[in-house]
Amino acid sequence: MHDERPDEELMALVARGDAAALESLYSRWERPLYQFLARHTGGRDVDDLHQETWLRVVRASTRYDPTRRFSTWLFQIALNLCRDWVRRPPPEPVDPASVSALAAEHPDRDAALDVERLLAALPEEQRAAVVLRYCHDLPEDEVAVILDVPRGTVKSRLHAAVRRLVSLAREPRGRP
Amino acid sequence: MTCDELFDAWLHHGDLPAGGAEHLATCASCQRDAEAMTALTSALRAQAAPEPPPWLSRAVLRSAAPLLAARAEPVPGPAWRALAIALLPLPLILAVDWFLVRGAHALLSGLLPDALSLYLAGSYAVLLATLLGLTYAAVPLLAARQLRPPLEEHHA
Fold first, then answer.
1. CATH of the domain at A67
2. Closest Cα to residue A42, out of A113, A100, A107?
3. Looking at the complex, does the CB of residue A153 fall below 8 Å from at least one CB of chain B?
4. Which of A3, B69, B87, B144 has its CA 20 to 30 A from that of B119?
5. Which residue has the higher pLDDT, A94 or A130?
6. B153/A59 CB distance under 8 A
7. CA A141, A143, A146, A149 torsion: positive or negative?
């Protein structure tokens, strides 16, 4: 059943241990959070990061400030986890042949792979700004709050990131 | 208008500023940038991100259950039940106290003036009543404390 109560009210209930409130919040934000993590990490360890984000939400629920937007707070927690995650050892290198084969098998997947490749070329802080701004359509103000930087910094990160992405997108595919 | 100003206006406001169209019409580099940027932003918006696997919600909610249980307010029942049990011997305690106060008054009235012995026995009675009240007030608190689950992690 769809829960009409606002996120902030549900969070107050979660802070008091209400499992049904957490379930409502979870069903509302499961997909956006999962997709943010998948885009930001390139798909590595997304399930673990997703689960850990929600556990942190519950652990920190008594400290949640209901005057702030829940989504902003949720993405902040996820982003902090991603930053810790970045410090872990890198995954086994992917065989380029397998990626090409996958793209050949699924032409519709080709574009997605291309965006993933472009995003992976960005530094972490620029990638976070681009994913939040363009993939999740958040306004620059909210991106600034999530990233905990001034709005001007978001603008400059977006500027640098899009400049780089545009130049990469203009390069012929397959070039190193 | 410079190429950078046009790029910034497009990036942050999504439309061409005054004089932008003229610049764009004459600048081949900006035309290529504009084309690439339009393709890029629409690709980013349309990027198919993976869906969460169906088992994940069950796993997350199951992992969160002990944390939520720790957050839940203690059920008042057991604390009040402890108080009710503690109140059972109260008549006996009051009877013993009554005999103690009466005995103290009888003893003191043989040694001291009546008013002074009455005052001391009264003070003794008040002290006993205060201690008894504090003891019974502590019963539900101690019971709730014993029933509380272990503390959860505090760092977020």
1. 1.10.1740.10
2. A113
3. no
4. B87
5. A130
6. yes
7. negative
